[in-house]
Amino acid sequence: MSRERGVTFLELIVTASILAILASAILPLGRVTVKRQKELELRRSLRILRAAIDRHKLAVDRGEIGGTEIETGNEGYPADLEALVEGVSQVGAADADARMKFLRRIPVDPMTGEADWGLRCYQDRPDSRSWCRDNVYDVYSRSDGVGLDGVPYREW
After folding, report:
1. pLDDT for residue 132
2. pTM attached to this predicted model
3. Residue 38's CB: how many other CB atoms inside 10 A?
4. What is the distance between the alpha carbons of residues 37 and 147, in angstroms, rounded to a whole number?
């Protein structure tokens, strides 16, 4: 009498059920990991933009840059983010076309997928969502999402 060896139907159902439970537990963890990576990229991009704005302001205060690009009333901050990429004329540079640049490119907001950042002027209130268009004092994400810490991305 020979007994065939194999897997019963019940064993297959139990194994499939265990795998389904494990997969349903891993899926949300994967989503959280992706969201965390995007949040890290958002923090990095905001840090890069804000540091470039601060370097521009410092260069104006030191008198290293000037000319027609630096208008009165802008408090020494760049007119827009593109000015950080295009650069501004250096004072006293040997080459008349020498420009001081603060960014290679405007980073993409990982939450919106675009390089369209919310901007604030020096004259704006800290929680303002409108830009006066005189200068760029601060940047924020235009995403309506909320971070893993419960704080909306617009407030980062």
Report:
1. 85
2. 0.77
3. 18
4. 11
